[in-house]
Design a protein that fits this description.
Blueprint (H helix, E strand, L loop, with lengths): L1 H26 L27 H11 L8 H7 L5 E4 L5 E6 L7 E5 L2 E8 L6 E5 L4 E5 L4 E5 L4 E7 L2 H12 L18
Length: 194
């Protein structure tokens, strides 16, 4: 009798394990009766805490994500040498910050309230210093006595009467010693019509 009980238990255990296997096989079929594709999961890497990342690693990642600026011509580099950098106060309490890019000579980052532009020098026929962010449509004009930032896409000025200390000195000198007028009206001949 003991032997019979033993065989019954082995038989029941076999049925039980085959029932589990059949249930697993049945659950792997989808609603249409077709076999589901097996999903293999890959081990997920644990996120790295920001304070454990080496500075050199984060720098490499930032360089890889940053677009490459095209190199500038010698004429554009000479224009860049005359750009005023630093904090420049403007009219109506506004101000901008012009920063030269240490890694890409000739390029500048211009930042103000609500905007930030990547500027590069552009040659002009007038001699004015002109920087542009072509993609954003921003133009920075630097004259002897003031600078201004324009949004060409929307046709408006973002900042006006911005002045570096060197420009303030020129503006004050222009008040004391005004430049000659562009048109000399003393030599204009008027024609009387009768």
């Amino acid at each position: 009798m003991c032997l019979l009980k033993f065989f019954c238990l082995v038989f029941m255990a076999g049925l039980w394990s085959s029932g589990i296997n059949m249930a697993q096989a049945q659950s792997s079929k989808d609603a249409n009766g077709g076999a589901k594709k097996e999903v293999h999961t890959k081990p997920v890497a644990k996120p790295i805490a920001p304070d454990t990342i080496k500075k050199s690693d984060s720098h490499k990642r930032n360089v890889a994500l940053k677009p490459v600026d095209p190199p500038l011509a010698p004429q554009e580099l000479s224009i860049a040498e005359r750009v005023h950098v630093g904090h420049l106060p403007c009219e109506l309490g506004a101000s901008i910050r012009m920063t030269a890019d240490a890694h890409t000579p000739g390029y500048f980052d211009l930042q103000g309230k609500g905007y930030k532009y990547r500027m590069r020098p552009v040659a002009t026929s007038t001699g004015a210093i002109r920087l542009e962010d072509e993609k954003a449509g921003a133009v920075w004009l630097q004259l002897a006595n003031k600078s201004m930032l324009m949004d060409q896409k929307n046709g408006r000025r973002l900042a006006d009467e911005c002045a570096h200390p060197d420009q303030v000195a020129v503006a004050n000198d222009m008040k004391i010693n005004p430049p000659p007028p562009l048109i000399d009206v003393s030599n204009v001949v008027t024609i009387n019509k009768r």
